[in-house]
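In response to the reviewer comment on reproducibility (Comment 2.3), we provide here a single inverse folding case reported in full, input and output, so that an independent group could reproduce the run without further information from us. The structure tokens appear first.
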């Protein structure tokens, strides 16, 4: 076995990145991002992407991998993460996997289903059908060919409907029948931690403060510039990221600035709630609390003690 990597997962705005940087300042650590939004170049403000100064001070991996008009899959992240962790170990340093995309972590530890890679042409065809007929109609089609997947997917969940139909059209087999066939192990050990806010109200306040800081830093202007440079549309995974989705509606004239702020904060709270629900599925993670300086000092001390 190559060695033991550390994992630090937690909901958005819980202080993961700050804690990771503090740990890296005290040991031979390189950070491997577990975040599905940080892979996109140009999405800086709304993703709270580490600054260039922070990335110069502490090596970060799996950030700025693709342009915002390109899709990036969980399978691709897993392959990239395994390569990054191997490179960190090869340099005699400690990989610290940090983020809040729980699906990525699950894919890392449990492996991936044997599924085909995405097909850009077919996805465009499905998107065009959805524009004509609506996603509920495509969900009904999915229910005919893959009722098990349709039962798990909401009629308005465009991303998952698209993927399930894509798999059916590429393979002739239901997505539900292909899932669960492959569960490869890891060549290294993992010691995992979940950073959980001690009080939900404090997390909600942190979410609101951070989004206001993003607005002040130019989130809407960042999206406007991205739309000028790239062939973006609101169905892209990058544009479904919380904050960007609401800013898109603002630029499209569907909502005003006050409504955009309210919707983005509410959506971020819902994201945090889903992330906390995910964390309960991982009993192997040791719980650390955040929300006060004293709790974060205790969390840092525990991580330092766990460092290989």
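Designed residues, in position order:
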């Amino acid at each position: 076995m190559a060695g033991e990597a550390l994992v630090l997962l937690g909901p958005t705005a819980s202080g993961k990145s700050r804690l990771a940087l503090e740990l890296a300042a005290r040991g031979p650590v390189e950070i491997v991002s577990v975040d599905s939004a940080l892979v996109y170049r140009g999405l800086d403000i709304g993703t709270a992407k580490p600054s260039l100064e922070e990335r110069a001070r502490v090596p970060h991996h799996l950030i700025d991998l693709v342009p915002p008009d390109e899709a990036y899959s969980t399978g691709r992240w897993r392959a990239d993460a395994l390569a990054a962790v191997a490179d960190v170990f090869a340099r005699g340093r400690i990989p610290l996997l940090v983020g809040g995309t729980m699906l990525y972590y699950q894919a890392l530890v449990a492996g991936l289903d044997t599924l085909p890679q995405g097909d850009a042409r077919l996805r465009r065809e499905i998107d065009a059908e959805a524009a004509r007929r609506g996603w509920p109609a495509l969900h009904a089609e999915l229910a005919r060919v893959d009722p098990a997947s349709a039962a798990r997917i909401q009629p308005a969940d465009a991303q998952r409907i698209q993927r399930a139909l894509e798999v059916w059209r590429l393979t002739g087999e239901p997505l539900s029948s292909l899932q669960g066939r492959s569960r490869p192990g890891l060549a290294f050990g993992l010691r995992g931690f979940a950073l959980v806010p001690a009080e939900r109200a404090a997390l909600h306040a942190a979410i609101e403060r951070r989004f206001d800081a993003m607005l002040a830093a130019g989130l809407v202007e960042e999206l406007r510039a991205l739309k000028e440079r790239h062939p973006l549309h609101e169905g892209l995974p990058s544009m479904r990221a919380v904050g960007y989705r609401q800013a898109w509606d603002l630029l499209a004239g569907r909502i005003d600035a006050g409504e955009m702020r309210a919707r983005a904060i509410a959506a971020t709270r819902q994201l945090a709630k889903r992330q906390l629900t995910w964390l309960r599925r991982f009993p192997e993670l040791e719980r650390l609390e955040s929300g006060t300086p004293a709790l974060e000092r205790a969390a840092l001390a525990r991580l330092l003690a766990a460092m290989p």
